[in-house]
Amino acid sequence: AHLLASAGMDQTVCVWNVWSRDSQKKARVFTHHNAAVKDVRWSPQGLSLLSCGYDCCSRLVDVEKGTEKQLFQEDEVVGVIKFHPDNHNLFLSGGFKGSLRLWDVRTGNVAEEYVRPLGPILDVEFSTDARHFISSSDVSKTNASENSIIVWDVSREIPLSNQVYVEAYTCPCIRPPFKLDKYKRYEDHVVSGFPVKCNFSLDGNELASGSADGCIYVYNYRTSELVRKIKAFEEACVDVAYHPVMPNVIAACGWNVCCRPRMVFWGHSNR
Predict the structure, then answer these.
(1) Comparing C-alpha atoms, which of 250, 244, 259 is closest to residue 230?
(2) 51-101 pLDDT per residue, tens
(3) How far apart are CA 196 and CA 54, in angstroms?
(4) How many structural domains are present in the chain?
(5) Taking a C-beta distance cutoff of 8 angstroms, is the pair 264, 216 a contact?
(6) Which helix (H) or strand (E) holds 37?
(7) Domain range enclosing 214
(8) Three-class secondary structure of residue 225 per DSSP
(9) d(Cα 14, Cα 5) in Å, to the nearest integer?
(10) Whereabouts are the WD repeats (predicted)?
(11) Is residue 137 part of a domain?
């Protein structure tokens, strides 16, 4: 658990050796994309990287060899991708024109397509049992807030519910568990128009969020109390991710395209 993958607006996908003491921490740089890269995911086996972006495709790359294994061409900018949690040969992609497609890595073809008039897809996430997935889309142009978050049946290609969230706000990030608690609010972090995302700790006790002020905000999930505020960047901090093994380590990325990802450490509390 010493490698971190990042997607950049400079058309590259980088793999970082986060524990390296050298000034140059890049272990690999992949330049297969022809435009800015929006999202990147490790394959479940950890041997490949799947990335997508403004060149209207997703690309699967062998990390060790540095070669492109598969290209998945689409007719729109691809903003988000997610591997199926049970069948690692499948992944879900969401596009800027509202498309949702389930791809088969073995054939390079679309296995399922989920059709509904949606805005740009902002995020997707599978349910724990992998029978459903939830999508978030930008509804600012259509004013159709009932389409902001939709729960889909994976195999039947139909929406099961579009009444999950009917607020007139877009949700750039969705994370399990999928339930709305109207009485819990995690405050103090700032969005200011940036696509700020959040993430839960592995034990589910903490929720970390980026912020437009460049800080990482860490909350107690159950009480909503702000337990930690960490200055990470001078510009907006747009995404955070907990280390898969070490609970007191968070990776964060900033809005500045020249800034590399940062690892943040702190002394763990008993909260």
Answers:
(1) 250
(2) 999 999 999 999 999 999 999 999 999 999 999 999 999 999 999 999 999
(3) 19
(4) 1
(5) yes
(6) strand 37-42
(7) 186-271
(8) coil
(9) 6
(10) 1-26, 71-113
(11) no
Residues 6+ positions from 237 with CB-CB distance below 8 Å: 196, 210, 211, 212, 214, 215, 216, 252, 253, 254, 255
pLDDT digits (tens, 9 = 90+) for 109-152: 999 999 888 889 999 999 888 899 999 988 766 555 667 888 99
Q: Which residue has the tokens 């524990």?
A: 19
Backbone angles phi, psi at 13, to 5 degrees: -115, 125
Q: Six-digit token pair at 198?
A: 């959040």
Residue type, 263: M
User: Is 264 a member of any domain?
Assistant: yes
C-alpha dist (Å) from residue 247 to 128, 216, 220: 21, 15, 14
- Torsion angles phi and psi, residue 110, rounded to 5: -75, 125
Q: What are phi and psi of 145, to 5 degrees?
A: -65, -20
Do the domain assignments include residue 74?
no
Please report whether residue 61 resides in a domain.
no
